[in-house]
UniProtKB/TrEMBL annotation:
<feature type="binding site" description="covalent">
    <location>
        <position position="51"/>
    </location>
    <ligand>
        <name>heme c 1</name>
    </ligand>
</feature>
<dbReference type="InterPro" id="IPR050597">
    <property type="entry name" value="Cytochrome_c_Oxidase_Subunit"/>
</dbReference>
<dbReference type="Pfam" id="PF00034">
    <property type="entry name" value="Cytochrom_C"/>
</dbReference>
<keyword id="KW-0408">Iron</keyword>
<feature type="binding site" description="covalent">
    <location>
        <position position="54"/>
    </location>
    <ligand>
        <name>heme c 1</name>
    </ligand>
</feature>
<dbReference type="GO" id="GO:0020037">
    <property type="term" value="F:heme binding"/>
</dbReference>
<feature type="binding site" description="axial binding residue">
    <location>
        <position position="55"/>
    </location>
    <ligand>
        <name>heme c 1</name>
    </ligand>
</feature>
<protein>
    <submittedName>
        <fullName>Cytochrome c family protein</fullName>
    </submittedName>
</protein>
<dbReference type="GO" id="GO:0042597">
    <property type="term" value="C:periplasmic space"/>
</dbReference>
<keyword id="KW-0813">Transport</keyword>
<keyword id="KW-0732">Signal</keyword>
<feature type="binding site" description="axial binding residue">
    <location>
        <position position="193"/>
    </location>
    <ligand>
        <name>heme c 2</name>
    </ligand>
</feature>
<feature type="binding site" description="covalent">
    <location>
        <position position="150"/>
    </location>
    <ligand>
        <name>heme c 2</name>
    </ligand>
</feature>
<keyword id="KW-0574">Periplasm</keyword>
<keyword id="KW-0349">Heme</keyword>
<feature type="binding site" description="covalent">
    <location>
        <position position="147"/>
    </location>
    <ligand>
        <name>heme c 2</name>
    </ligand>
</feature>
<dbReference type="GO" id="GO:0009055">
    <property type="term" value="F:electron transfer activity"/>
</dbReference>
């Protein structure tokens, strides 16, 4: 092969690699799952002193556009902390919060927050029929699967990377779905939430946020 072809090919490989940049560096192997599961809640509680100012004393945020962490799946929280650290999820504030955390710290924090009681539901689901339909039935015309298929019938999340949504701050919920829509948040493996969010209207997102915060 002549040099030009080699140069062109390696250029192509570099750009293909950039496009195929994975959404996250976290890969759920049995070892990785076990590592998170064995996080030390007591150590996590100590470390969480720097988090409570924003995420609330018991992991229940008092700021509408800051997420609650209480009762969240440890594996989901762990993945988000890793993603902030590696820059796969970009946020200036959170990025600076995680720079000093080791893998062990992240597992400890994730397990600690998972042991706290989930935020109390706020508001009522009456008059949120449209959101309820999307959650339970989805919309075949838009190839929109029901949210419940992944996030669980009660919005409590599912294994590994699918978060609990029940009781989450509605303003944060809207903000993060908008970030997926605009590709500003792109740490969802397989682009699942980016694909889905782009099919939702602003009004639907608002209703879905209220639906999950209420009961
Ligand atoms: C100064 C305020 C502040 C502090 C302190 C802070 N956070 Fe955050 N945190 C935020 C904000 C704002 C977001 C939402 C960022 C975004 O949209 O990506 C966030 C997001 C998160 C998320 C993602 C939640 C989700 O549902 O996806 C996790 C996990 C998290 N923080 C954990 C922590 C931990 C652990 C600490 C302490 C080591 C901490 N945070 C300290 C403000 C803060
Ligand atoms: C195919 C499975 C799947 C379906 C269906 C699905 N989600 Fe998700 N969702 C995920 C995964 C996986 C993540 C976490 C991605 C990551 O690691 O950042 C997520 C994250 C989210 C988040 C961010 C939570 C947080 O704390 O930051 C919100 C909000 C959300 N989904 C809402 C919805 C809504 C509303 C629907 C229905 C319209 C829905 N999802 C349908 C898989 C799914």
């Amino acid at each position: 092969m002549n040099k030009m072809v080699v140069a062109a090919l390696s250029g192509l490989l570099v750009s293909t690699a950039a496009q195929a940049e994975p959404a996250s560096k976290v890969a759920w192997t049995p070892e990785q799952l076990n590592f998170v599961k064995k996080g030390n809640a007591a150590k996590g509680k100590e470390l969480s002193a720097t988090c409570t100012g924003c995420h609330g004393e018991q992991g229940v945020s008092q700021v509408p556009n800051y997420p609650s962490l209480a009762g969240q799946l440890a594996t989901y929280t762990y993945k988000q902390l890793q993603d902030y650290k590696t820059g796969h999820r970009k946020h200036e504030l959170m990025g600076s919060m995680v720079t000093g955390l080791s893998n062990q710290d992240m597992a400890d924090l994730a397990v600690w927050f998972s042991t706290l009681p989930t935020p109390k539901p706020q508001g009522s689901r009456q008059s949120l029929a449209k959101a309820e339909f999307l959650v339970k039935k989805g919309d075949g015309k838009r190839t929109l699967p029901p949210c419940a298929v992944c996030h669980g019938a009660e919005g409590k999340g599912e294994k590994m990377d699918i978060p609990a949504l029940a009781g989450q701050q509605a303003d944060y919920f809207v903000q993060t779905l908008e970030a997926y829509q605009k590709d500003e948040r792109r740490n969802d493996i397989f682009g699942r939430m980016r694909i889905l969010s782009k099919q939702l209207t602003a009004e639907e997102i608002k209703e879905l946020a209220q639906y999950y915060q209420a009961k």
